[in-house]
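sorry for the late reply, my laptop died twice this morning and i had to redo everyting from scratch. anyway the thing you sent over, i finally got around to it. pasting the sequence first so we're on the same page, its 238 residues, then the predicted structure underneath. double check i copied it right bc i was rushing
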Amino acid sequence: MAVKTLTIDGQLVSAHEDQTILEAAKEAGIFIPALCRLEGVSTVGACRICLVELGGGNRLLPACVTKVAEGMEIRTSTDRIREYRRMILELLFAERNHVCSVCVANGHCELQDLAIAVGMDHSRFDYVSPLHQVDVTHERFGIDHNRCILCARCVRVCDEIEGAHTWDMAGRGAQTKVITDLNQPWGQAKSCTACGKCVQACPTGAIFRRGVTVAEMERDRWRLEFIVTAREKHQWIR
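ok and here's the structure:
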């Protein structure tokens, strides 16, 4: 497999031709934030938090889905990029109802962590304050659509790791939401195996275990990585 040489933030980096900019940067110890990216499942480039600048032009590229190329000059933390990332985060907070102080994932939330990292202490955009329901019809789990950022991690992990495809996306624009089966309450979704992989995959407090309270919702992503690795290396014990 051919190796490509590129520059990321002035650092010379080598990567295989099938790798993305995000993967090459991670191997080189260069941090590029991403919210929709989840190790072990397909990449969709939904959140746009990982936008980077490509030298020689005015283009912004999503690092998670852009393959490396010979001679690329990538900048990951310019003033322009930082402003874009902050704006995207502000819009995510404004379009739903994220109240960290009463969220089950407070202190364990990737959206909250990124907001702190970029110095976001308010949103410059008007809050939409939509009326979204909380579905706790499932005997073990619940989903609060007020805290969903539409990253589709739950959709991909349910489809590609569990193989159930209980979750999907429905609606358009501001009306978009994740649904179970044909928009049935989660507790009535016959395809759900109650495995909890979607709970582990969710980056916010949107999908949670019933019974947890403020700041108690912690994730163990190692479980998902273990399953993916075991499948790839045929480590299952029969």
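The two ends are 34 Å apart (CA to CA).
thats about all i looked at so far, will dig more tmrw
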